[in-house]
Amino acid sequence: MNHSDEIHISSTAEEYKKLGGTASSRRSFLALLLSAGAASVGALLSVPLLRFLLHPLVKAKTQASWKEIGSVEDLASVTSPVKKLVKVEQRDGWRKIVSEKAVYVCRDANGHLCTLSSVCPHLGCSIAWHDDKNKFICPCHNGQFTAEGKLLGGPPPRGMDRLESKVEDGKLVVHYQTFKQLVPNKEVIA
Amino acid sequence: MATQPLEPGAFNPWIDRRSGISDRRKGEAESPLGAVLNEPIPGGASLAYVFGSGLLYLFLSQIVTGMFLALYYVPSADHAHTTVAYLTKEVTSGSFIRSIHAYGSSAIVIVLLLHISQTFLYGAYKGRRKLLWLAGCVLFALMLGMSFTGYLLPWDQKAYFATTVGTNILTYIPVIGGPLKSLLRGGAEMGTITLSRFFVLHVFLLPSLILGFIAAHVLLFRRAGPAGPFQGDPQALKRSTEPFYPKQVVFDLLFALVIIGCLGLLAHYLPVALGPKANPSDTHYVPRPEWYYIPVFQWLKYWESGFAVVGILVIPAFVALLFVALPFLDRRPERRPWKRPVSVSIYAFIFIGLGALGGISHRNDLRDPAIAPQLAKQQTDVDAFMKKPFEPELAGVSPFAAQSLSPIASQGKRVFEEEGCIECHGADLSGTPSAPSLLGVGQKHDAAKLRSILNQPTDAMADGGMQPVDVREEDLAALIAFLESLK
Ligand code: FES
After folding, report:
1. A10, B255, B316, B346: which could form a disulfide with B50 (CB 3.0–4.6 Å)?
2. Is the pLDDT of residue A124 over 90?
3. CA distances from B277 to B41, B99, B388 (A)
4. Judged by CB atoms within 8 Å, which residues 38-97 of A form the interface with B?
C-alpha cells in the first residue's frame, strides 16, 4: 500500500472531524442500525433458500418399502431354494428407477421362509442354486454356500446375505438391500 | 446546504484502507462511495423516488430465486414439467420460492409502471436525461421479454398454449414474420427445442443484456443527477437539498421491505399453481396470458380481418415509438404536468385504454357461454393436479420391467433364466464383474450373429467363462428372439 495514501486519509479524517463530530457519529450509528436491519432481513430471507438447497440432504431416507415376492401358499412347497425376481424402485430426485433383482426364497432351520440376496459377497456375481449338488455355487470364483446361505468354501469372506422379509396379508414381502462386498460382516450400502 | 460530507473510514475502516472506497483522491471532489451516498437530491428525499431502487431490489430477488429454481429445473419437454412439479410439491420451500419468482415478475411490471409514470409526470426525461430515458425503454422491453420467455418454462397447459398464441402473433409481421417465428421456436411447431431456446433467452441472454442496460441506466443517472420536484423556486430547492444518505436510503429500504412483505404474504397464502403437463393435442384449451398482457391480448381480438396488420403491428409500433421518442418530441424545459396537457393526456389515455381493454376481456371471459365453462374446467384441472401427490418420472427401466415381451421372447427370457445366463449377465441384464451387460445387444447383433455366438462363443468370450449354449432348437430360437428384443 502507498504510504502517502494513508497520510492523506488521516488528514481528511481530521478535517471532517472539525466539521461536526456529533452529526457524523449519529450518522454512523444510523448506518450501523440500517446495516443490522438489512442483514437480519437478509438472514430471514435466506432461510427458505437454504431449506430449498438442502432438501436432498435433509429429507429422510426413503423408508423401507416392502416388495412382494409371492403368496405364502404358492411358496408352501419350497424345500430347496428357489429364485424369485422382485421389482425394486429407487428414487433419484424427480426420477424413479425400476429394476428387477433376483432373490432366493429358502427355508431356515426352524422351517420359516427366508430370503437371500443372490449377489455374491465376494465380488458381486449372481450366485446359482444347484439342485443336484444341493448347494449354492458362485459361477465366478467357485464360492460355495449351503441351502441356508452359510459359507462352505471359496473366496467369499462371509455367507450369503439374508434379506429382511416378513409375511403380510398372506404374502411374502422383502426389503431389498445391497451390501458391501469383500468385508466379513454384512454392511448395508443402500 | 444540508449536505454533510461522509467521513473517511465511515463505511468500514478495514475495507476502506484496502480499497480506498471512501477515500477522497486529490483533485476529486468526493470518494466513490461518498459520491453515491452524498448524491444531492434537490428539494430533499421523497417517497416518490423509491421505485428505481425497488426495481433493482426486485431484479436481484429474481436472480437469486431463479438461480435456486435452476437447482432442480431441467429445460427439456420430457422433464421440465416433472421437475417443476417436483420442486413445487416435494422440495422444502419449493412452492414458496417459485411463487416469489412468479409474483416477482408481476411486481416488476407494477413497480416499473409506477417508475415510468413518476418519471413521466415529473418530466424527468428532459434535458440531459434523454439517453437515460432511452436506456429505461430498452430495459422495459427486455423485462417484457423476460416474462414472456419465463412463462413457457413450467411446460404446463397454460404455458404451452399461451406461448403458442404469443409466438403466432409474429406471423402478422410481413415477410420476416414467419421465419422469425420459426427461429424463435426452433422449427415450425412448439417443442423441446422451443423450450431450450426460451430457457437460454430467459436465463442467459436477456439477463446479461438487462445487467448491461441497468449499468448504463444507473451510470447515466449518476451523471445527470436526480431531477428533483417538477416545480418550486430554484433557490428554495437548493436550500432544501438533502444527500441521498440517510433519508432517501431509509425510504428505499422501507420500500424494499414493503415489496418483500407483499411477495412473502402472497407466496405463502396464495402459492402459484402448476397445471397439468402440456398436451399439444388438446383442442379445447383456452389460453390466457399473464394479467399484464391481457389488454394487448384483448386489443388483438379486434383486428381479425384484413386490417390486422394495422391493429397488430402499425398502431402498437407507433405507440411504442411515440413512447421511446418522448424526450425528443417534448423538448420544452417545462416539467409541471398541468402545463404539458397534450403529452399527459395521451399518456393517461393509453393507460386508461389498456385498463379498459383488460376489464372488457375479463368481463367477456365471465359471460361468454362458450368460454366461461371451459375456463372453469381448466381451473378445476389445475386444482386437481395440485392436489395429486408428486409422481416421479420413470427412468432407466430395465427391459424386463418395462417391456411387454412377445410370447416367443418371453419364452426366451425363461430359457435365459433357467440356463443360468442370468448368473453372470445379471438379473436385470446390466452385467456383473464376470460378464458384460446385454442391454442393447439386439442392436449390436442380428439373429444370425447371435446364433453363431451362442453356438460358439468368440475366444474372448470363452476366456471370460462363456459356455456354448446347448439347448433344444426351439429354446435356442426363443432365446435369440429374446436377445434380439433387447434394443
Ligand atoms: S464373485 Fe462369487 S466367488 Fe467371486
Report:
1. B255
2. no
3. 52, 18, 13
4. 38, 41, 45, 48-49, 51-55, 58-59, 83, 85, 87, 91-97
B293 and B341 together in one domain: yes
Question: Between the CA of residue B205 and those of A113, B84, B199, B210, B211, what are the distances in Å?
Answer: 63, 22, 9, 9, 10
* Count: domains in chain A: 2
Residues A17, A52 within the same domain:
yes
Q: pTM for this one?
A: 0.77
Q: What is the CA radius of gyration of chain B?
A: 32
| A43 and A93 fall within a common domain | no
Q: Is 50 exceeded by the pLDDT of residue A75?
A: yes
Q: Nearest 10 degrees: CA dihedral of B237, B242, B244, B250?
A: -110
Q: Whose CA is nearest to atom 1 of ligand 1?
A: A123
| Domain of residue B404, CATH code | 1.10.760.10
Q: List all residues 6 or more positions away from B49 whose beta carbon is below 8 Å from its beta carbon.
A: B41, B118, B226, B248, B251
Ligand 1 centroid–CA A157 distance in Å is 10
Q: Report whether residue A157 contacts ligand 1, using a CB cutoff of 6 Å.
A: no
B29: its cell numbers: 471532489
Under an 8 A CB cutoff, do B423 and A139 touch?
A: yes
Are residues A77 and A162 both part of a single domain? yes
Question: Mean pLDDT per 10-residue run, chain B (487 residues)?
Answer: 52 79 72 82 90 96 97 96 96 96 97 95 91 96 96 96 92 90 95 97 98 96 88 85 89 95 97 95 90 91 80 90 92 88 92 95 92 93 95 70 67 79 75 76 84 86 81 87 82
Predicted ipTM beyond 0.95: no
Q: State the pLDDT at residue B443.
A: 79
Å from A5 to nearest chain B CA? 9
- Ligand 1 mean position to A154 CA, how many Å? 8
CA distance linking residue B455 with residue B474, whole number of Å: 14
Asked if residue A30 is part of any domain, the answer here is yes
Mutate to test the pocket of ligand 1, among A126, A140, A160 (most ligand atoms within 8 A of CB): A140
Q: What is the predicted pLDDT for the residue at A137?
A: 92
A141 lines ligand 1 (CB under 6 A): yes
B94 interaction partners in chain A (CB closer than 8 Å): 52, 55
Ligand 1 pocket test target in A117, A118, A120 with most atoms within 8 Å of CB: A120
Question: How many domains does chain B divide into?
Answer: 3
Among B352, B387, B422, the domain-final residue is B387
Whether residues B472 and B342 fall in one domain: no
* Domain of A132, in residue numbers: 67-175
User: CA B271, CA B367: separation in Å to the nearest integer?
Assistant: 27
Domain holding B4, by residue range, is: 1-31
Distance from CA of A75 to the nearest CA of B (A): 19
For the CA of A155, the closest atom of ligand 1 is: 3
Cross-strand pairs, B173: none
